[in-house]
Specification:
The complex is a heterodimer of chains A (343) and B (273). Chain A has twelve helices and 15 strands. Helices cover 35% and strands 24% of the residues of chain A. In chain B, helix 3 runs parallel beside helix 6. The chains are: A alpha/beta (343), B mainly alpha (273).
Amino acid sequence: MAESTDNGIEAEGLVREFKKGPRAVDGIDLTVAPGEIYGFLGPNGAGKSTTVHMLTTLLPPTAGTARVGGHDIVREGPAVRDTIGVALQEAALDPFLTAHEHMRLQAGMHGIPRTAAARRGAELIARVGLSEAADRKVGGYSGGMRRRLDLALALVHEPRILFLDEPTTGLDVQSRTALWDEVTRLSSERGVTVFLTTQYLEEADALAQRVAIIDVGKIVADGTPDSLKAEIGRPTVEAIPAEVAQRERMRDVLGRFGTETAAAPGAVAVRLDDGTEELAEVVRALDGAGVRVANLEIHAPTLDDVFLAKTGKRLEGAGDDPEAEAARAAGREPTGELETVGA
Amino acid sequence: MSADTATVPAAYARERTGTWTQVGHLARRSVVRTVRQPAVIVSSMVFPLFLLAINASGLAAATDLPGFPTDSYLTFFLAVTFMQGALFSTMGAGQAIAGDIQLGFFNRLQLTPLRGPALVAGQLAGALLLGLVQALGFLTVGLAFGADLEAGAAGALALVALSCLVSVAFGSIGLTVGLRTGNAEQVQGAFPLLFVFLFFSSLALPRDLIANDWFQTLATINPVSYVIEAYRSLLIEGWDVEALALGLAVAVGVLVAGLFAANAALRTRMERT
């Protein structure tokens, strides 16, 4: 098989239809540069995993073409698989084997000689912090430990391109941060290209150099997180009246400063036409209209706003943001990108 | 971190893995899995031995029938115990692969340079081990309780070898069902169907002593009868070449058909390009 030094991913018009089912992926085009961390963001059922299955050769596309590491995903499946490491959505581990045994099997199947396989396995197990548990059966591992082992297994043959399908779903903050650090290290130190699917806005924002947003099988936005947010540009002000009866009056006042957008129950939100410079005027206008405010917040544009702007709906799972989950678990309110300016 | 970061060259040399090397890795896994599930091994032995105990005492009077080949119903029914054990191997092999599909482990393997036949052969190693443990266990218990073994020590080896072959052969059928359904519960649901073959065989009586014509016909066309009779010949008669050859032919036939079906099912299941 021809050795290629190209670490990138290119897809053109990729389609996957299922029998008697919807078109799960509906003609997507994407380009991932070598060494880049590419975030593939979308709600459940958007087509993220189907795209990963096609790009990793597990599922043939119905139409379209793609090249991974310089190899065609349909005609050169073995060469693609040789180039990539994959951690799919479910950490696919055998509960009856230990971490060392998983490593031995994975390395052996990839043709790494026994001595080198043992060394490589121990090195990766140590890197993901599982040395102490390496001789225990995986059936007793926590979700975070399984994920870390899954990542280590994906790296055993030193792939140039790494596919991670929702790698932090269900993980605690510590495990998530450790995984992010490792992914970042792989990209920066080893030049590994990372294709990462996620339904967590914060994850895409923090980790990915470029993000594609997918919804109902189509890519609706593609760019760096900053450029995507800049497209939306304007911050949102969200306020809750002290008295429910004043909500309509509040809506009228805020409506003078921008376009109304989705808000939390009981609140009114508008995307400010002229940015945060208007904030003082907003407060004065509310005061002038006699509207007493219980709470007022400014939201900087987020990828969720990008998603809302592109699809007309909020990203599912935004409420399941790991930061928010962790904050709730710790008994505090999630901070996110909210900035309270008082009322 | 930058997009033009050069990839660090791989530090570990890789070799092209041959089919037998892959079989070795997968067989090792299958054996480890089997050993680490003692409940599976024990239950696959307890049920057949329980039936043996019941039948050996409850149907002992059958040996009074004119033409019955032995005066020990324990010896006569011990052959069925080996066959029952093989049916448990069928379910074990099917559930193992179906579990791999459900857990996603199958996809993990698909992403390696896995060759299909290596997966089939490797997965059957667990069935082989189960067959070996069962055969040794059934033989030991049978002999301890007074069963005959007319073929002697060499016959014991032949019995164990045949049992291993039958376990792998029927295991390949289980593997096919597991690959087709991809669901461990469905494999378990199919298990009683296999017992139909066992019950419509020469399980309880020699075929020539089955009085009911339709039952005798079914038992005659049922290949399971010939496997049981091969076991039985070693226990009761010694070295009956015809009975052994028929049993062996059935086992090999089931194995060939099973491997063919399992590989076909695997090709359908593996959608990878």
